[in-house]
Each structure stands twice: as C-alpha cells, then as structure tokens.
Amino acid sequence: MASIAVMGAGSIGCYVGGRLAAAGADVVFIGREPLGSELAAHGLTLSDYRDYRRRLAPSEIVYATTAQPAADAALVLVTVKSAATAAAARELAGVLQPDAVVVSLQNGLGNAAVLRGTLTTQRVLAGMVPFNVVHGSDGAFHQGSEGELEVEDDARLAPFLDLFAAAGLPLRRHADLLPVQWAKLLLNLNNPVNALSDLPLKAQLSQRAYRRCLALAQREGLDLLATAGIAPARLTRVPANWIPCVLALPDALFRLVAAGMLAIDPLARSSMWEDLQARRATEVDWINGEIVRLAERLGRAAPVNARLVALVHAAEQGGRRRWSGAELLAALRPG
Description:
15 helices, alpha/beta, 4-stranded mixed beta sheet
C-alpha cells in the first residue's frame, strides 16, 4: 500500500492521519518533538461525536521530526499552521518524489498556491477540513463536529479514495474548490469569537450575543463576496447567505432551527482557543484577515473582522482573553 506522510502533526494532522492508519494505511507523522514524545508514551486515541473510538498503540505509530521520511510517500497531507506553509514546502522540496501528490488541509485560501510555488514537480491540490478537532490529554484527539474532507478533484487521487472511505473520511471532490473554501472560511469567522468567549463551541453558540458577533462578521464577509462576484458553496443545511439571520434569532428559536444545521458535541472548541490556551500564535490572519484583505482589494473596509483580528492579536500578547457576549458585541459594533 502506498505510504502517506502527514506534514504538521497537530490536532488535524494526528486525527486525519490516525484515522487513515487505523484503517490500515502506512502513515508517517511529521511534527514537533513534544507531541512525538506524547504519542510515544500514550499512543493515539481517536474519537468523534458519533461514538467512534479507536486507539493506536505507540508501537503502531511512526513519528518523525524532520521531513526525510516523506521521501517514500505517494501522498502528503500538509496540515501545518498557515504561517509555516512556506517553510514546510522548502523542507518537502528536498525529499519528495516528483510524482508525489500533495494535499493542503489547512485554514485560509492561499496555502496550496504557496506550496505550488516551491513544489513545482509534484501535484499540489487544495483541500479543506470542515470539522473541528480537539487535542485532549495523553494523545487523545476528538472530532467534535460533522463534515467531510473536501478536495480539488484530480485523477491522481484515485488510488487513495477507497482508503479514505474505509477510514470514515471520504473525500468530496470538486472541480472548483474556491467556493467551498470561502464557505468554510465564513463559518470559521466564529473562531475568534469562540476563542475570546473561553467557552466550548456549543455553549458559546447557545448565547445570542455571541451569535450576533458572528453574524456581524459574516454579513461583512458576504457583502464583500457579493461585490467580488463570489458565491460561497452550501456546506450546511442552511445556505451561507441565510446563516446570519439564523444566528440572530432568539435563543429558543435558534435551538429549534440550528438542531438540523450542524452537529456539534459539548467537547468541541475552536483551534484558535487551543492556540491561545497554549500561548501560540493563532491563524486569525488567515481567517478573519482574509476578509480584511478582500476588502482592501475592493477598496473597501472590513471593520468588524479587522477588530476581531486586533483583539486576538492583543490576546496573543497577554491581553484580555475572556469576553462576555455583550462586551464583545459592543466592541464590534460601529461607533
């Protein structure tokens, strides 16, 4: 069986790579030494909101701290943080086979292009992970919300399709992934709201004031996308353009409507919350910052998303990290 390398073994990388390994794939995880030590001590425990559970013993895990083992990989899943994409591409360029397939499973819109700029002989495809993964203790990784892996369609993915399906992570292929990426980014505009609430996603979204913060950010993004002539894909049972209206509903009515929109379990938290807890740099510049950059290209402003970027950067530097819904809403409203 063709080998798979996961470049950037963090929450997403360990979960997706772990599910593939549990299905019988030959997987090598490439990441930082502390996580390698954690997996060597405890193994890898995978779970999801649908009661899936599987543990890989330490002896079943191949973990490296350099890209060298990717030399044998037919497929490379890049799951590093967006700020590390260029460095990861340089590492991989020195070892990958020319016919390797590389899939970016990262936040933001431009990571595949960054990879293509360096990996000029490999086939690089954009991909997207629509669900949330929480890294618990002792090598535990939990998928806390629903969704399937999305990827650019390419014939060179054919040898891997059955394996992803067997792992419970079927690949949804698209001739044009950009509308899907924008739709996911609109949902991810909640990441700073969740991080600054210091609450689990389900608890945060149960409060109307926090939802109204997200609705402001989404409306701003949707207005700019309409100006740019970009129609986001439909990822949930509610079309993207309707979601801000649903978010603004009173709590009792929202619970009725949202029950059929997107499954989220009580353990789910945003990766941005995890980054703040670990005192790491977040990806806010590749999420809400994308809306700000789109506004700049259109000669417009995106004050709500720009404010969220600023608040998260302040939190990264030791500033306030816990806001009530009312306080955050007041900080985001114009004037």
